[in-house]
Write a structure and sequence with these properties.
152 residues; alpha/beta; 7 strands; globular
């Protein structure tokens, strides 16, 4: 059976949220391939941003209680996990990331790297994905500030 990227990412996210170590920021490296950053292609960036907003707005209402901000393609625009009942937050994060990258017909994912990193006292779930778009490989990063969840 061949697993899609989305299923592989889902499995990796679960293990990171529950079992993974926090690595130093300098160790959180994107996939090894030579890539163009997402910001190098404004058309692609706009498409990903619109898709992320579309997905977020269609998440179950409970998920939106725990994850907000975004669109997360830079650390400065990271999704932020907050809420009183943080035990539900990991599932919300996994659903958000799964659906953002499930459109493999439009944006096939060639490689991915995920890790938890600490930067300036905040803990982030970092995902670096290499997508193929118009014959070029682009690095699409996703940042989720999980400090509230991880420190609870």
């Amino acid at each position: 059976m061949v697993y899609s990227y989305a299923m592989k990412a889902f499995t990796a996210l679960l293990s990171l949220l529950f079992l993974g170590q926090i690595c130093p920021a300098e160790d959180a490296t994107p996939p090894a391939a030579v890539n163009l950053p997402l910001s190098d292609n404004q058309e692609l960036y706009a498409a990903f941003e619109a898709h992320a907003r579309y997905i977020y707005n269609r998440l179950p209402a409970m998920d939106r209680l725990y994850v907000h901000e975004g669109p997360g393609f830079t650390r400065e625009t990271a999704w932020v996990v907050e809420g009183a009942e943080l035990s539900q937050a990991p599932a919300a994060v996994v659903r958000l990331m799964y659906f953002i990258y499930e459109d493999e017909d439009r944006f096939p994912v060639l490689e991915f790297n995920q890790d938890r990193v600490e930067i300036d006292g905040k803990i982030y779930l970092y995902t670096g994905n290499v997508v193929l778009y118009q014959g070029k490989r682009y690095l699409v990063e996703q940042w989720v500030d999980i400090s509230a969840y991880w420190r609870k």
